[in-house]
Amino acid sequence: MSEPVYKRVVLKLSGEALAGDHKFGIDPDVVDAIARQIREIRDLGVDIAVVVGGGNIWRGRAGYSKGMDRATADYMGMLATVMNALALQDAIEHHGVATRVQTAIEMRAIAEPYIRRRAIRHLDKGRVVIFAAGTGNPYFTTDTTAALRAAEIEADAILMAKQGTDGVYDSDPRTNPEASRFDRIGYLDVLNLGLDVMDSTAASLCMDNGIPIVVFDMNVYGNIRRVILGENIGTVVGGEGNGQRRD
Predict the structure, then answer these.
(1) Which H helix or E strand runs over 86?
(2) Tens-digit pLDDT profile for the chain (247 aa)?
(3) 3-class SS letters over 96-121
């Protein structure tokens, strides 16, 4: 297939993905590779927004598990996502693509505040929009941010880029060599089986708004483009599903 099957997408990146093999911080080579793939998608005429996590710099869960106030730990995590967003913006613009960072927590010196209509306008003009600082509220993950922003900008799908995982399995393939990967699965199956796709709030929001989620391995260069072109890689979460496993 040579034509995109999605016209507007939200790409969800974990913070850890930006660290590469270093596990902490930002690996410029990894960020550049992601930026090049985003440029390829933009060249296809696809509107793309990005939601990035902050786990490569700070994980709120680690903070409050050690006794830190939950809200404070989560706000620190939101600030970490802004650092990642700025790094990604710089890399994308080095490849000649106009980019805007919008933050749910206002910091006008470095980014725009999140305004839905402005975000849509940027997308209509062919700019990549990076949503940072989560939802602006503690107790919500960046998975929920991706689901919320996808609904707000009327995205056709969420591309859930995983690090070293090529889809959704019925059990952990790292510990169970007999684990089977799903080609397609329903929202309720994900919730009822407790599968590691995204948190339950985010999955419920996608279900309520009929937003499909494509889970795929981002470590293989070009996979983002393959998903956009409709190649059968990864797992599609959506609709009733049929629990269809790959042989």
Answers:
(1) helix 70-94
(2) 579 999 999 999 999 999 988 889 999 999 999 999 999 999 999 999 999 999 999 988 888 889 999 999 999 999 999 999 999 999 999 999 999 999 999 999 999 999 999 999 999 999 999 999 999 999 999 999 999 999 999 999 999 998 878 899 988 887 888 888 999 999 999 999 888 788 899 999 999 999 999 999 998 999 999 999 999 999 999 976 555 555 4
(3) CCCEEEEECCCCCCCCEECCHHHHHH
Q: Is 64 exposed, middle or buried (0-12, 13-18, 19+ CB in 10 A)?
A: middle
169-172 long-range contacts, CB within 8 A, separation 24+: 169/195, 170/195, 170/245, 172/196
Q: What is the CATH number of domain 8-245?
A: 3.40.1160.10
CB 77 within 8 A of CB 59: yes
pTM given for the model: 0.93
Euclidean distance between the first and final Cα of the chain, in Å? 23
β-strand partners of 13: 52
DSSP 20-80: GGGSSS--HHHHHHHHHHHHHHHHTT-EEEEEE--TTT--HHHHHHTT--HHHHHHHHHHH
CB crowding 67-81: b at 16 or more within 10 Å, else e: eeeeeebbbbbbbbb
